[in-house]
Amino acid sequence: MTQTEIEELFTREGQAHLFNHVSKLGATEKDELYKNLSKLAGRITPIKLQEAYQKSLEHLQNDGNVSCDIKTLPETSYQSIIGNPTLAEEYFDVGLNSIQNGEVAVILMAGGQGTRLGSSSPKGCYDINLPSHKSLFQIQAEKIWRLQELSKCKKVIPWYIMTSEPTRVATEAFFIQNSYFGLQKSQIRFFNQGTLPALDSTGSKMFLSSPTNIVQSPDGNGGLYHAIKENNLLEDFKKRGIKHIYMYCVDNVLSKVADPVFIGFSIKHNFLLSTKAVRKRDAHESVGLIASKNGKPCVIEYSEISKELAEERDSEGLLKLRAGNIVNHYYSISLLEKQLNHWCENSTYHIAKKKIPYYDNLSGEYVKPEEPNGIKLEQFIFDVFPEIPLDRFGCLEVERSEEFSPLKNGLGSANDNPNTARQSYLELGTSWLIKAGATVAKDVQVEVSNKISYQGENLSQFVGQTFNEDDTLLEL
């Protein structure tokens, strides 16, 4: 598109204000502005963005007008391995067999920065102050390494890492600097999540972030589906012979990457899409819940259910609605092949009111608002859940202390911070050693490298050994 065509398109679609300062720009800056606008128009035009906003409003209104029948998932979809090691072992064997055959790939959602943690680096680079000072990326890479050793797999486990524009370069550099943490460079592929322009509070006008660009933000974790399509990952999956995808988030230090139990559960029951859940800490924990709404699988916000429903218990005395969402999913490749285009073409967006800093091209000043002045549109990864038939949707309840300790808040917060993540990781490794027959001195915690053990196996060599305060790191 020529500069004239670009300006005509954006002006026709309500964005004439973006050009108020063009006459003051030098040739290089002017070229940069039109280049950025042309690139944006290739992904989404202003009118398409406004249509997405209107659709979001309608969706929100319709949701408010529809009565909801919220229930727990049926037994055909929901199962727990808590206190059931025999069942877990059965699923583990099924999943490990699939890994051995090279049928499993891993997708890591790692687009966020460690801003809340006081870091400008990608969150995966963060050090939670373990004795080894390993980053989240290294901890997770070593789980993949150990699983490959454990399974004696015929092919390596492909690791697809979704970054964002602000974190892509730093993430790749970190992996290069650390020699890919012992994995093969060829088994790792980085790809970017998408972005969408922010809009003013009326949903009609875009903001400039500088004289040459507009304000954009990540399109939410539901942007994974667009990212898979735009980066042709389905073709890559098929080329590698992948049949099953394990997806997780970088901030969960306890995530069992490529978990054979979860994969085996999904394969055994022929599920198209599955998710893991942990039990709510209490009836009113602020966490999304995996349930059914009007007969369809979904994730509901805690604010969507009444106090009575939140506190209702089953015959065993457990909360009926207890399946806390940890954003850890299984996808069959057959599902992605069938539904990916449909999901991308029929995206549901959600409106988030935000304080959006912007460049005022009339005054030439940068504005940092103190109150929300605009909106960002984002997608949720679980928006597609209701499209999965209940008998092809699974939810596996796992032990929180073994699988979920997210790093979301900075030091000094009540929970989900670097200290709680570190504590959870050390407690788990220490419990493995004690269960294996080692003795750990009082008030001592041991970091067990995941290159030695994936989930507590391979520790019989430490039977009878005592770990004191000088023995807090067990490395390969």
From TrEMBL:
Keywords: Nucleotidyltransferase, Transferase. It catalyses: N-acetyl-alpha-D-glucosamine 1-phosphate + UTP + H(+) = UDP-N-acetyl-alpha-D-glucosamine + diphosphate. Pathway: Nucleotide-sugar biosynthesis; UDP-N-acetyl-alpha-D-glucosamine biosynthesis; UDP-N-acetyl-alpha-D-glucosamine from N-acetyl-alpha-D-glucosamine 1-phosphate: step 1/1. It comes from the Eukaryota. Its EC number is 2.7.7.23. GO terms for molecular function: UDP-N-acetylglucosamine diphosphorylase activity. CDD domains: UDPGlcNAc_PPase. The keyword Transferase applies. It holds the Pfam family UDPGP. GO terms for biological process: UDP-N-acetylglucosamine biosynthetic process. Belongs to the UDPGP type 1 family. This is UDP-N-acetylglucosamine diphosphorylase. It comes from Maudiozyma saulgeensis. The lineage of its organism: Eukaryota, Fungi, Dikarya, Ascomycota, Saccharomycotina.
